[in-house]
Write a structure and sequence with these properties.
By secondary structure, this protein is α/β, with parallel strands linked by helices. Helix content is 38%, strand content 16%. A seven-stranded mixed sheet has the order 1-3-2-4-5-6-7, sandwiched between helices.
């Protein structure tokens, strides 16, 4: 196993001819895809990896400067594809990883299509743009996170997932959140929430499938339509009846069939 593979806990499963890469969002790791993976193994070679900073990665490898922008994560993704000698893949990115894949698609030859789950190019409201948050909201969130990380996780997990603390999905997200080193989690979330990827959308040339829950604390439904309107390539939107920011974990019965459809079928001409 190469250095990059080892650092990111890369796993390659399945026996299909086509390559499918699954990338997780903030506060989780590759286990967030556990309900989807079994459905893919006969038809795809599935690549799973952890973003640097996830609780499953070595915190000593987390370079605060490198990961102060999303480009650092995009370079990691490209390095993983290079080390595995992958020349084309279907990329499924959850939350921030959808934007990481979008940045990495500056190498469009490597991406047959990008499937975005719960994606947002910007979380802050702006003139003529509704991202869902004001700066004051984020400042309060960061203050609470810095004051008591464990208490913050206990409150944030059910809000993000959409459910009570007793639900399996909330417990699972709480577990992976707790696994992150607090200073790293703080830095990662600041980078995500303060990012603005709107300017790169018009440069995208890879087909994009935008999948969104009808109710998501972090991403209003109008953001999915914004992506659809501003992405330079062909794109399609599907809003699911699921709730929450991690629907592949909390509503697999709804989400898995939708994901499989978009993975297996290209945008109709």
């Amino acid at each position: 196993m190469g250095i990059v593979e080892e650092a990111h806990n890369v796993k390659v499963l399945g026996s299909g001819a086509r390559v499918l890469v699954l990338a997780h969002g903030f506060g989780t790791d590759q286990s967030v895809w556990k309900h989807l993976v079994p459905h893919l193994l006969d038809d795809f070679r599935v690549v799973l990896y952890d973003n640097m900073g996830a609780g499953t990665t070595n915190p000593d490898y987390f370079d605060f400067e490198r990961y102060s922008t999303l480009q650092g994560y995009a370079y990691d993704l490209l390095a993983i594809l290079e080390e595995l000698q992958i020349d084309s893949c279907i990329f499924v990115g959850h939350s921030v990883s959808a934007m990481i894949g979008t940045i990495a698609s500056i190498r469009p030859d490597l991406f047959a299509k990008i499937i975005m789950v719960s994606a947002s190019p910007r979380y802050l409201n702006d003139v003529d743009y509704f991202g869902g948050f004001e700066q004051e909201d984020l400042d309060q969130l960061f203050d609470a996170m810095a004051a008591n990380y464990k208490a913050w996780c206990s409150g944030f997990a059910p809000m993000a997932v959409g459910g009570d603390m007793d639900s399996v999905a909330v417990q699972e997200f709480s577990r992976t959140l707790f696994n992150m080193r607090p200073d790293i989690a703080f830095s990662v979330l600041q980078t995500i929430f303060q990012s603005d990827m709107r300017q790169i959308l018009s440069l995208v040339t890879v087909p994009c499938h935008i999948i969104q829950s009808m109710k998501d604390l972090a991403v209003p439904v109008v953001v999915a339509e914004y992506l659809h309107q501003h992405i330079g390539s062909e794109s399609v939107v599907e809003v699911m009846s699921s709730e929450g920011h991690l629907p592949q974990l909390s509503s697999p019965d709804i989400v898995i069939p939708v994901l499989l459809k978009h993975i297996r079928h290209d945008i109709a001409a």
